[in-house]
Amino acid sequence: MNFLLWSTVKPLIEIAVLAFIFYKILVFFQGTRAFQVLKGMTYLLVVFLLSQLLGLATLNWLLTKFFAIWILALVVIFQQEIKQGLARLGQGNLFNISLEESEVSAIIDELVDAAFVLSEKKTGVLIAIEREAKLKTYIESGIMIDGLVTSELLQTIFKHDSPMHDGGVVVRGLRIVAASCLFPLSENQHLSKIIGTRHRAALGLTEQTDALTLLVSEETGDVSVACDGKFIPVTGPERLRDILKDLLIVHPEQEVK
Predict the structure, then answer these.
(1) Which CATH superfamily is domain 101-256 in?
(2) End-to-end CA distance of the chain
(3) What is the pTM of this model?
């Protein structure tokens, strides 16, 4: 009796585990060109599992051979997405340096003030906020600053006549670590061709790390935030403040989840 029960339950457990793993893989690659292919593979996986349950030997054999070939093909075709995904694996939502909530809020206030003062002047801004992933490589490409995060300092850095105007700023904890840093450009093929280098750099860094980027367009003065390879539009100072708080401040009840 126990053997029969286990024979019935075992395939269901296997299906549940595989479904959970594949769901996590889909979430992992969401927003990349591999995502649609993996969605299609999900349907084939369901058919494969059903063929095993129903004892459809020929279909099971064909799908087994198919998966063996396509696993190798996917590694070759989507090696860039896999590399970017592994770079972000295990990264969380906290600052790399542990800060009190009040300290994070104070930094956010300075960032918001600087962003909208510079937005009114249509001054281009690109600020990266380091979280779990180290941004050492990008910091080394810029000019070391090591100053407290203040609206005034950010405005000085991004002034049109400043030698540090081009490139991005990296914020780590309470300090501006470096300015004029070079960030990787996004390889997202779906981006509009009219999107400039600053926007592609803002997005590219968040595709390869868990950093947040704060962006002000030099052409329009529009403010936006990039996170996980996606832009989040900003409609005003309070909206920007709320977005940054949601992404940078983790409350105890969120950590439990």
Answers:
(1) DNA integrity scanning protein, DisA, N-terminal domain (3.40.1700.10)
(2) 39
(3) 0.63
